[in-house]
């Protein structure tokens, strides 16, 4: 449907643009001296035809562009949804090959190629038709001379531009690969930032990141040079081909007239638009979209987590065995074709309602055993039988950005609805914009009690409605572990798997959790507990001792000999808690927290979201200046601006030269036929007003903004990535180019406008300026505001992807895929609504600007009939052609400056964010001052003194440590309940020689 609709609309635009030069040629010919027999009605009819075609072209073109962008947006949304749904099905082996940064790069960079491809892709097959038709029309006017320009344009557009587009596609693939590497590296550094700081590895990792960025920038520079070459070739292609055609036409003995020159100019403008601009852009968009499709295809072909059926028990005997786990001669591995399997020859049988403890040293296979039961780790041999639903508490707590309550209630409401309705507990249906589940009040508060969270909820400022950041950065390690445990316990299941939840809590809390939760509350459920706490083994019904992927011992506590217990104790005592969750370095930064909505159960005040790093509003000028200073030297920017000014002057001078050449040809031919009817004064009085008309056509672009030219040049900036995002290095060149060219046109208008002597033109120009400014301030401000909100609407989507990747086993074990997908779709819809409003507002603004340009074209066209009373004797056809052709150029070009300015202002939000990150308050100097360096034999004693010590995680919140005064003598062993806080103080120690 899209193909046929676009083909029909494109054919209409195609025929209108082909018919336009023909009607224009007839209108210009009307003013030739050889057409005196034509009456004024012919001129009025031809002028009306020129205006009507222009208006129809504007009316159809913008609706077509909006429809194409909407199709591209839908394709991008579909690909994003497909990528996310694939993520939830990835096997653990595939997850090892996928980083959160790579997924963000997919959704922020790769899929956006479809937005551009949807607009230009059809021009690949439209271009040959347009070129053949355009050549036929040219051949009717200038004969064989048309071949000169067409061959030059074809040589420049098809082989050269095609090769550049293909090369750009290859470079795009390299850039994507190196960007993935850099993003993955940064993700790993952020995850381990605390370790890096503790060991003072900052400089080493800075060099690693600099090297990765340098490798990426090298390819980006090459791609930018190619893009610059492409832009440079397209600028003067039209004029070069036109001059070759006219010179060939004159050398063949023909005479130039205004109708031939400017009809040829319009035809070459149309052909160049399709052949030298749209066609190379379409090839480039196709190449980049093909690269994105290949990368997405590689991701979509990754191995999925196989769904193995769970035994459905229908008879009475089988119902009684619900909660049974049985593995027979089972082998499992994380990688295909390994040297040795991760688990080997596993034989276990756990009856329903039993408590099984799994112990062993690090890397012995305890977690792998749980992952096998969860079907995250595939079997390579043997069989497994599981009866009943499974709930799982991971070793590293997984928390998402929401309230504490919503993190506990993570549940697919559709799977639990029947059970809840048949119970006699108090129930409430929790429903808000982002979260929906069946809330069992009695069970919830029982779980909170047995998981020792009541005291924490009293300490939280908003109770269980307190917001937690991504991965629970606002909570301690013990609180995260207990909330993660409460989620698993709250779920109605037959089998509960606990992967060492007691290691992150204090001894007395761990004892409470084991007694109240595992032994009493879940006493009728099957429980498997991975633990390092040997004191709990005596309470277990079954003990499994793992070693190197095998079961060393399987039995009860009484079956364990004293020597076996001693060996286990020594092994566990020597282990380092390498898997223990640490407080991430990102806890230093204020999280951007969004609430999942309000709950109907608590009437307490709702927590407020934290502010973003930057405020919404006008981007300060200093951001633009600093961006340019960081990107290039001042002398290079001055040279670039100088070259663009010279190029614009050359282009304008060439247009005037063609006009003068044509006028001389007309005057020479007229003198040879009818004699000299005019003197030089008449020629001057005729050319001066038309010269003023051309300058006024340029000066109409001045009405875009009342700001100075320097302000517009400062606005020519773009973002650096993303990224993440988004491939901003590709965008910056084109947008800077268009805005600077637009600004140069304004400069030329400021200089040339006073030369005008036509009062009517000045009045109309000022009226257009007022109208244009009103439109700029009323209409363009809307997309600029949406540009401000677009990054804020997109950020939650990326955060949701990262959180889902981190907690994938928990999501699967809770059967929460549908809820998580629904949340992702909702976040995507919120971002899409903002993005679509940007598209609509931009196209609407462009449409009204083109309407103003068409009105101006009508004024310019009809003024020759009105003010000259249709008397062609007072007008040279070349001047008519120059004025009308320049006015026609405004249609479509006038909107470039304001629209690009809006996009730059929107994308500068990312630049300002990067700059603000660069300006964050830094730690002390990496090295101590020479005068304060400690001696070589320092420290002689391990003495630590705290004097009036305060510690804040957030300056806006109360201090965590208040007026701490402690003196720890050398050799003392100290146990701290608030161990995280103390360690965080030690991280920030600055050596001053004392």
Shape: elongated
Please identify which CATH superfamily of the domain at 2-302 and 620-918 we are dealing with.
ABC transporter type 1, transmembrane domain
Tell how many strands the DSSP assignment holds.
15
User: Do you know the CATH architecture of the domain at 2-302 and 620-918?
Assistant: Up-down Bundle
CATH topology of the domain at 2-302 and 620-918: ABC transporter transmembrane region fold
Structural class: alpha/beta
CATH hierarchy, class of the domain at 2-302 and 620-918? Mainly Alpha
How large is the radius of gyration? 37 Å
Share of residues in helices? 55-70%
Question: Largest beta sheet: what is the strand line-up?
Answer: 5-10-11-3-12-13
Largest sheet: 6 strands, mixed
Number of helices: 32
Distance between the termini: 78 Å
Mean pLDDT: 69
How large a portion of the residues is in β-strands, by DSSP E? 5-15%
Given as residue ranges, the uncertain stretches (5+ residues, pLDDT < 50) are: 308-319, 412-436, 575-606, 609-616, 658-759
Keywords: ATP-binding, Membrane, Nucleotide-binding, Transmembrane, Transmembrane helix, Transport
Membrane topology: Multi-pass membrane protein
Protein name: Multidrug resistance-associated protein lethal(2)03659
Organism: Rhamnusium bicolor
Overview in brief:
This protein has 32 helices and 15 strands.
Explain the overall architecture:
With 994 residues, the protein is of the alpha/beta class. Among the domains are: 2-302 and 620-918, ABC transporter transmembrane region fold; 930-987, no CATH class. It is built from 32 helices and 15 strands. The strands form five sheets. A six-stranded mixed beta sheet has the order 5-10-11-3-12-13, with helices on both faces. The chain has a three-stranded antiparallel beta sheet with strand order 2-1-4, with helices on one face. Strands 6-9 form a two-stranded antiparallel sheet. Helix 4 runs antiparallel to helix 7. Residues 308-319, 412-436, 575-606, 609-616 and 658-759 have low confidence and may be disordered.
């Amino acid at each position: 449907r899209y193909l046929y609709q676009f083909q029909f609309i494109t054919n209409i635009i195609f025929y209108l643009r082909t018919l336009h030069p023909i009607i224009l040629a007839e209108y210009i010919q009307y003013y030739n001296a050889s057409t005196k027999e034509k009456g004024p009605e012919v001129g009025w009819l031809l002028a009306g035809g020129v205006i009507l075609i222009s208006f129809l072209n504007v009316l159809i073109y913008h609706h077509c562009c909006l429809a194409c962008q909407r199709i591209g947006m839908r394709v991008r949304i579909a690909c994003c949804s497909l990528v996310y749904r694939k993520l939830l099905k990835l096997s653990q082996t595939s997850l090892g090959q996928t980083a959160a940064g790579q997924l963000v790069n997919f959704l922020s960079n790769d899929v956006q190629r479809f937005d551009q491809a949807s607009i230009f892709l059809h021009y690949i097959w439209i271009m040959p038709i347009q070129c053949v038709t355009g050549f036929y029309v040219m051949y009717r006017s200038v004969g064989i001379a048309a071949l000169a320009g067409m061959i030059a344009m074809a040589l420049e557009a098809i082989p050269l531009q095609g090769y550049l587009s293909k090369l750009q596609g290859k470079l795009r693939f390299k850039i994507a690969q190196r960007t993935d590497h850099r993003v993955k590296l940064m993700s790993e550094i952020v995850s381990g930032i605390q370790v890096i700081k503790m060991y003072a590895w900052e400089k080493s990792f800075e060099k690693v990141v600099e090297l990765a960025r340098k490798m990426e920038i090298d390819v980006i520079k090459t791609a930018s040079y190619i893009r610059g070459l492409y832009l440079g070739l397209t600028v003067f292609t039209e004029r070069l081909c036109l001059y070759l055609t006219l010179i060939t036409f004159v050398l063949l003995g023909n005479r130039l007239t205004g109708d031939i020159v400017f009809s040829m100019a319009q035809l070459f403008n149309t052909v160049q638009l399709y052949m030298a601009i749209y066609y190379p852009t379409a090839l480039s968009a196709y190449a980049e979209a093909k690269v994105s499709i290949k990368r997405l295809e590689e991701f979509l072909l990754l191995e999925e987590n196989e769904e193995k059926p769970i035994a459905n028990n229908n008879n009475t005997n089988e119902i009684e065995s619900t909660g049974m786990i049985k593995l027979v001669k089972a082998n499992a591995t994380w990688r295909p074709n390994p040297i040795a399997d991760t688990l080997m020859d596993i034989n276990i049988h756990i009856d329903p309602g039993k408590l099984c403890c799994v112990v062993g040293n690090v890397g012995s296979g305890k977690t792998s055993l749980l992952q096998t039961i969860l079907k995250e780790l595939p079997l390579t041999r043997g069989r497994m039988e599981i009866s009943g639903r499974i709930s799982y508490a991971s070793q590293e707590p997984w928390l998402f950005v929401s309230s504490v309550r919503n993190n506990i209630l993570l549940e697919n409401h559709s799977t639990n609805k029947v059970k809840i309705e048949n119970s006699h507990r108090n129930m409430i249906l929790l429903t808000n914009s982002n979260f929906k589940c069946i809330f069992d009040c009695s069970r919830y508060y029982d779980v909170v009690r047995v998981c020792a969270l009541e005291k924490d909820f009293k300490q939280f400022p908003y109770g269980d409605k307190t917001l937690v950041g991504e991965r629970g950065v606002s909570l301690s390690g013990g609180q995260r572990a207990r909330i993660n445990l409460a989620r698993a316990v709250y779920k109605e299941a037959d089998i509960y798997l606990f992967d060492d939840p007691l290691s992150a809590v204090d001894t007395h809390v761990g004892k409470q959790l084991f007694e109240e939760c595992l032994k009493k509350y879940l006493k009728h459920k099957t429980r498997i507990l991975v633990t390092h706490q040997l004191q709990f083994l005596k309470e277990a019904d079954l003990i499994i001792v793992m070693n190197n992927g095998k079961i060393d011992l399987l039995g009860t506590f009484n079956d364990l000999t004293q020597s076996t217990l001693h060996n286990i104790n020594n092994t566990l005592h020597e282990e380092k808690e390498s898997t223990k969750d640490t407080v991430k370095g990102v806890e230093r930064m204020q999280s951007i927290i969004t609430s999942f909505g309000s709950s109907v159960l608590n009437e307490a005040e709702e927590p407020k979201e934290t502010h973003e790093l930057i405020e919404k509003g006008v981007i300060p000028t200093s951001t633009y200046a600093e961006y340019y200073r960081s990107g290039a030297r001042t002398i290079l920017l001055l040279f670039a601006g100088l070259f663009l000014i010279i190029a614009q002057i050359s282009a304008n001078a060439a247009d005037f030269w063609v006009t003068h050449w044509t006028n001389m040809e007309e005057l020479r031919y007229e003198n040879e036929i009818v004699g000299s009817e005019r003197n030089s004064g008449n020629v001057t009085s005729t050319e001066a007003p038309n010269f003023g008309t051309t300058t006024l056509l340029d000066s109409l672009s001045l009405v875009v903004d009342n700001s100075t030219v320097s302000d517009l040049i400062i606005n020519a900036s773009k973002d650096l990535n993303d990224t993440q995002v988004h491939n901003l290095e590709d965008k910056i060149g084109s947008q800077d180019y268009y805005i600077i060219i637009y600004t140069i046109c304004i400069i030329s208008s400021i200089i040339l406008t006073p030369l005008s002597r036509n009062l009517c033109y000045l009045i109309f120009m000022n009226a257009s300026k007022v109208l244009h400014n009103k439109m700029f301030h009323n209409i363009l401000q809307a997309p600029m505001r949406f540009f401000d909100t677009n990054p804020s609407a997109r950020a939650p989507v990326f955060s949701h992807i990262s959180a889902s990747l981190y907690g994938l086993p928990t999501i699967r074990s809770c059967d929460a895929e549908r809820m998580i997908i629904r949340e992702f779709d909702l976040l995507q819809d919120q971002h899409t609504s903002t993005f679509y409003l940007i598209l609509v507002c931009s196209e609407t603004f462009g449409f009204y600007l083109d309407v103003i340009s068409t009105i101006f074209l009508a004024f310019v066209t009809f003024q020759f009939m009105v003010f000259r009373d249709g008397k062609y004797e007072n007008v040279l056809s070349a001047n008519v052609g120059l004025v009308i052709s320049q006015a026609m150029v405004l249609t479509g070009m006038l909107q470039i400056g304001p629209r690009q300015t809006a996009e730059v202002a929107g994308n500068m939000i990312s630049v300002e964010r990067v700059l603000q990150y660069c300006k964050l308050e830094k730690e002390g100097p990496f090295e101590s001052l020479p005068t304060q360096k400690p001696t070589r034999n320092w420290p002689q004693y391990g003495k630590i003194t705290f004097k009036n010590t305060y510690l804040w995680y957030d300056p806006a919140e109360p201090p965590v440590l208040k007026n701490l005064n402690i003196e720890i003598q050398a050799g003392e062993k100290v146990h701290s309940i608030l161990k995280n806080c103390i360690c965080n103080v030690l991280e920030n120690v600055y050596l001053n020689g004392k």
